[in-house]
Amino acid sequence: MDRADITTPSMASATAQPLRLSWRHPAGLLGLSTTNYVLRIITLGVYNFWGKTEVRKRIWSSIRIEGEPLQYTGTGRELFLGFLVVFGAVVIPVMIVSVVAALVLDPESAAFDAFQLVLYAAFFFLTGIAIYRAQRYRLSRTRWRGIRGSLIGSGHTYAWTYFWTGLLIPLTAGWIVPWRSAKLQGLMTRDMRFGDRPLQFTASSGPLYGRFAILWVGAVAIVLLVAAAAAVAMGTELANFDPSAGRAFAPSSRATAVVLATLALAYILFSIASAWYRAHQINHFAAHTQFDKACFKGCVTAGGLVWIGITNILIVLLTLGLLVPVAQARATRYLIEHLEITGSVALSEIAQAADQGIGRGEGLAQAFDIDAF
């Protein structure tokens, strides 16, 4: 037998290996939730930046790849500084300009309407930048085996796509949504790096449209259901209303209850249908995301998403926000436990990524209240 035939398999196994993704429940999360809650109240919300950092460290360390935890190295100071910079450079100037516009322009004029339209458009564009930069910060502060993640693209490119595709949602009656989701996911994923190695994303929006069509038709049917219930309930009330009595029309408690019950049913039905679509989207995107020679496989279900969503809402509401970190950990655990890595990665060949020199974190995302945990 040729010597190369003997050495090649061992060399391959030394450089490439399968990866196992797992979750280990974070210890002390209940105590941390209580501490963060109390300190946030005492400091009038300022401690939120440090509390959020501690929660991330616990959740990151609960995610294991080959039994080794992820490490989050961000700090509360970085989040706080990022918020202060954005508050001073964006929020305060916008508030001043808005006040001046309200004083100078007639609130009923076309000029004031144009000003508001430009302002809304600017905030919509900045939302895309906020999403991208928040992800860039989190990846730059994520380590596994000492290797850092990164996001190397342009936040403005992502924001522009986020902006113009968002404007097309009402113009296309929502039919651009699957294409838009795949486009934005592709922009974000292809810019991601672990060390010096990129991630690949090859998903198209085509396989999403079957379920989206059913969701779209279902949403229209739900809207018609609500409209019909309201028309019947209020129509009966209006038929019995006597304007000569000298009193304003006011629906009865029964009619109001019928409308509210219909709205609640519509919300439940749409949430289930939406979860059915979102589960398919998550699994589709995972199957078309690749790192080196490894791919991802998602087995998220609509039932699982609905269960996690409902129970997390109850946990947050019933504890008045005290157990938000517990809800965040539960959502992360569900995704990790329903995601697999197939194939192999040549770990020994991955080199450290260059430090991007990011000194502040997520200011826009926090100012716009779209920040992830």
Task: Please specify the SSE layout and strand pairing.
Blueprint: H1 3-15, E1 17-18, E2 21-23, H2 29-42, H3 48-62, E3 63-65, E4 68-69, E5 71-72, H4 76-104, H5 110-140, E6 142-144, E7 147-151, H6 155-171, H7 177-190, E8 192-194, E9 197-201, H8 209-239, H9 253-287, E10 289-291, E11 293-298, H10 302-318, H11 324-337, E12 339-345, H12 363-367
In short:
The protein has 373 residues and is α+β, with helices and mostly antiparallel strands.
Structure, explained:
The relative contact order is 0.15. Helix content is 63%, strand content 12%. Strands 1-12-11-10-9-8-7-6-5 form a nine-stranded antiparallel β-sheet. Strands 2-3-4 form a three-stranded antiparallel β-sheet. It has 373 residues and is α+β, with helices and mostly antiparallel strands. It is built from twelve helices and twelve strands.
User: What would you report as the Rg, rounded to the nearest angstrom?
Assistant: 25 Å
* Order of strands across the main sheet: 1-12-11-10-9-8-7-6-5
The major pleated sheet works out as:
9 strands, antiparallel
Q: Average pLDDT, to the nearest integer? A: 87
Distance between the termini: 57 Å
Number of strands: 12
Strand content of the residues, in percent? Answer: 5-15%
Question: Counting H and I runs of at least 4 residues, what is the number of helices?
Answer: 12
Low-confidence stretches: 1-13
| Order of SSEs | HEEHHEEEHHEEHHEEHHEEHHEH
Share of residues in helices: 55-70%
> Which outline best applies?
globular
- Helix and strand composition category: alpha+beta
